[in-house]
Here is the input.
Amino acid sequence: MIGEHLPALQVVVPLVAAPLIVLARRGAAAWLIATIASFVSLAIALALFVEVREAGVVSYALGSWAPPWGIEYRIDAANSVVLVLVALLASFVAPYAWRSAAFEVPEDQHYLCYAMFCLCLAGLLGIAITGDAFNLFVFLEISSLSSYVLIALGRDRRALLSAYQYLIVGTIGATFYVIGVGLLYLETGTLNIADLAARVAEVGTERPVLAALAFITVGLSLKLALFPLHFWLPNAYAYAPSIVSAFLAGTATKVSIYALLRFYFSVFGAHELFEVLPMGAILLALSVAAMMLASLGAVFQDNLKHMLAYSSVGQIGYITFGISLANQPALTGSVVHLVNHGVTKTALFLLAGAVAFRVRSVRFERLGGLARAMPLTCAGIVAGGFSLIGVPGTAGFVSKWYFVLGALEAGSWSMAFLPVVSSLIALWYMWRFVEVAYFRAPGPALAGVKEAPPALLVPSLALIAVTVFFGLDAPLTVGAAAQAAQVLLGGIR
Amino acid sequence: MSPFPGHYSYAVTIFLMIAGLYIVIARGNLIKKLVGLAIFQTSVYLLYIAPGKLIGGTAPIVDARYAVYSNPLPHVLILTAIVVGIATLALGLALVVRIREAYGSIEEDEILEQDRASASEEHGRAA
Here is the structure.
C-alpha cells in the first residue's frame, strides 16, 4: 500500500518535517526530527533504487492526474542514483549537525536551521525526482531559498553578503531556466519532460527552441557553478556554517548537473540542435578551463574552506567534461564522479568543520602542525585529498579512469591527458595542506587543541570510509552509473 | 517573419527583461539590485501569460457555444512563480536589513571595502 506512494513520500517526508521542526522549536527535538527525516529519505531512496533496478522506470502520477497533463514523478536509472546520493549525504550531515550546529549557530536559531535543512533536502530530492519541467523550477527555488537562509546563518558577517550575492545569482539562474522552459512550452504546449522530448524532436531547430536551449544552459550553469559562472560559490561555502557547506557542496551543484544532463540528453537529444549551436564545444572549453584554472585557484587560497570550494569548481569541470564528450564511458565517468565527488567533498567539508570546531579558524597560517593535535582529522583530510587527486584505491580514481577512457573513445589522445594534468594540480593544493599540517611546528593558535569529539569525527570518517569503499568496490557505483549513462544516451536521436 | 504589431507583448517583455537584468548588474545599491531582480522576474510572468490569451477567447468550457478559449495553464504556473518571486524579494530584503546592521551600509562597494580592510587586519594580526 505505502510502497506505491514511495515517490511522493520521498519529497513529502522532509517537506512535512520542516514545519514540524518549527512547531517543536526545542533544539534536541528539532535535531531529532531532521535526523529521522534524513534517514527515512535515505530508506525511501534506496527502496526506489532497488525498484528501478527491477522495473526500469517508476512513474508516479501525483494526485492521480495522468501524465502528461498532471505532474509526473519519474524515476529511472539516472535520477535514482542522484536521489540516493542526496539522501545519503543528508544522513551523514544530520548526525554531525548535533555538535557542529550547537557550536556555530546561535541557540535560538537552531530549530530554524534544521527546518531550512529539511526544506533544502526536500527541494533537492524534488529536483531529482520530478518529471515536470516547471515543477523542477519550483523545487529549484525551494532548495535555493532555503540554502540562502542556511548560508546567512554563518557567524562571520561576510556570510550575509555571500548569501545575498548567491541570492542574486541564483535567482537570475532560476529565472533564465524558467524563461527557457516558457519558450519550450510556447513551442510545444507541454511541460512533462518525457513528452517535451518527443515534441521537441518534431519541432526541430526552430529559433525559440535554440533560445530555450541557450537560456536553460546558462541558467543551470549558474546554479551548478560552471566556470566562469562560479564566482558566487567560494565565499558562500567558506562563510556558511560547516554543516551547510558540507551538505551544499555535495548535493546542490550535483543536483543542478543532473537537471542539465536531463535536458541535454532527454529533452534536447536531437543531434541537429547541437550542430546549430555548438554546445558540446563550448561546454568542453569551459570544462577544461574549470579543471585547470579553478584548480589552480585552489592552490593559492589561504583558507582550507576556500581551497575546498575552488577545488569543487575544478571537480565540477570534470563532470561537465564527461558531459561534453557524450559517449558511454565519458558519461559513465560523469555520473560516477557526481557521486564520488559529492561523497568526497562532503566528507572533506565535514572534517574542515571539525577543524573549525577545535581551532576556531580554518586559515592555513593558524593550522601549522595541526596533525599533532588532531591526527585522525588530518588523516581523514589527506585520505579525502587522495580521492580528489585520483589515487588508485579511492573513489576519485574510478571516475578519472572513465574520463580518460571517454576521451580515448572520442579519439583524442591530448584530451585524455587533461584529467591527468588537473590531478597534478589537485596534488599541488592538497600538498599545501599536508605541508602546513604535518611539517610545520605547532603555532600558538593550537595551544590546548584536542582531537575533534566523536560526534563530529565518526560521521566524517565514516563518509571518508565510503569514499574508499567506492574506490575499492568500483563495480557497485560504476554499474549504476553505466546504466544511468545508457538511459541518458538512449535519449539521443 | 510575423508582423511586429501582433507581437508587441514580446517587445515589452524583452524590454523589461533587459532593463531588470541591467539594473541588477549595473547598480551597486543592494536595494536597487533587488528592484531590478523583481522587474526581471516580472518580465517572465508576461512571457508566460501574454501568449495564453486569445482575443475573444473564453475560459475553457466544453460546450458547443464556445469554440475559442484562452489557455488557463500559464496563469496557474505564473501564480506559483509570483509566490516564488515574492519569497525571493522578501528574503533578499531581510538579508539587506541584516547586512545594514552588520556593516552600516547598503552600498556594495563600501561593504567590499570594509571586508578588504578587515581581511588585511586579520592577516596582519596573524603574521
